[in-house]
Amino acid sequence: MYAWIWRHLPGSGPVRALIALGLAAVVVLLLWNVAFPWAESKIQFDRNTVEHGGSAVTSTPTGR
Amino acid sequence: MSLSGGGDPGRGTASSSGAATSVGDGEANATIGARPDGRRGTLRAIIRGIGELCITAGLIVLLFMAYELWGTGRYTREQQDRLSDQLLRSWNAPPARVTTEKVKLGNGIAMIRIPRLGKDYRYVIVEGVEPRDLRKGPGHYPGSAMPGQIGNFVVSGHRTTYSAPFNGLDRLRDGDRILIDTRTAQYVYKVTGRRVVKPTAVEVTAPVPFRPGAKPTERLITLTTCHPKFSAAKRLIVFGKLAERRPRRLQPSDGG
């Protein structure tokens, strides 16, 4: 996969390396700013409230 | 072998087809020997591709853990800055219809400071304990008492992600001060105890902790967070009691 990408990058050695770094940076930024915030909201492994079943206790319901 | 179930001539042709297969294998081997880039090359590319995908997946998981621990804090800091400005501005403004002021979920209601956790330890407490509220900072359980009121002022906060406001709750000792600033007053609570409970132990949030339904006579504070760190298995609870009420003094550093 990576060899295939490398072969299809234009330019010579150093130019290719720069382009490859740029591509990697784009992928990391997309993950960090788009994919991870979305995934994080689905996972929620750090819960802090005490609650019955699914929702946190509210002794008097408040309108949202 | 799969041809053997084909009816009458099956038994007769099984041996011949087996022989044909072995001949075919021989031919395949010969082909691979002659052309290294052939079928074996394809297989090698597939296996290498799977390996690269596995390594990539591992790196993405590592990066995701880094995001959980450090990336999520940026959102909380942005929100805290915004809420802090908003809260201080509303405190400094002339009180308009204070009596009917109803706090909306996700808005700041008070400032919490815990000297034991550092001189600069300060967070805006937001109203609500839904995930989207707690992403902004420590959250006040809607319906529990407000700061300084008789009853139980219950606040929940993240232990590890999203700036981890309640990371150091296990370092609190009896008698440590928890300062809650509101528009008009600063409430000084003192820690009276700690407890690790099950996530379903809602009785700690009762107006009288562990005695749901009892009529409260004291002004209490309860902080809840997850326990152990990085886990949702249990909850760490810190109890406190109001020791003092002072008029809130404006600090020159309140702007930031």
Map the helices and strands.
The complex is a heterodimer of chains A (64) and B (256).
Chain A: H1 2-8, H2 13-43, E1 51-52, E2 55-56
Antiparallel strand pairs in A: 1-2
Chain B: H1 10-34, H2 39-92, E1 108-113, E2 122-127, H3 131-134, E3 139-140, E4 151-156, E5 177-181, E6 185-197, E7 219-227, E8 234-247
Parallel strand pairs in B: 2-3, 4-7
Antiparallel strand pairs in B: 1-2, 1-5, 3-4, 5-6, 6-8, 7-8
Approximate helicity band of chain B: 25-40%
- CATH topology term of the largest domain in chain B: Sortase, Chain: A
Kindly provide the radius of gyration of chain B, computed on alpha-carbon positions and rounded to a whole number of angstroms. 32 Å
**What CATH architecture of the largest domain in chain B do you see?**
Beta Barrel
| Subunit organisation of the chains | heterodimer
Helix content of chain A: 55-70%
Largest interface: A-B, 28 and 44 residues
What does this entry look like structurally?
The complex is a heterodimer of chains A (64) and B (256). Chain A has helices at residues 2-8, 13-43, and strands spanning 51-52, 55-56. Chain A is mostly helical. Chain A is 59% helix and 6% strand. Chain A has a domain at 1-40. Chain A contains 2 helices and 2 strands, in the order ααββ. Mean pLDDT of chain A is 76; it is low at 53-64. Chain B is α+β, with helices and mostly antiparallel strands and 256 residues long. Chain B has 2 domains: 12-63, no CATH class; 73-95 and 103-255, Sortase (Sortase, Chain: A, Beta Barrel), CATH 2.40.260. Chain B has helices at 10-34, 39-92, 131-134, and strands spanning 108-113, 122-127, 139-140, 151-156, 177-181, 185-197, 219-227, 234-247. In chain B, strands 1-2-3-4-7-8-6-5 form an 8-stranded mixed barrel. The longest helix of chain B is centred in the first third of the chain and has 54 residues, at 39-92. Residues 1-33 and 252-256 of chain B have low confidence and may be disordered. The A-B interface holds A 1-3, 28, 31-32, 36-37, 39-41, 44-52, 56-62, 64 and B 48-49, 52-53, 60, 63-64, 67-68, 71-72, 75, 105, 129-131, 134, 141-144, 156-162, 166, 197, 199-202, 204-205, 224-226, 230-232, 235, 237.
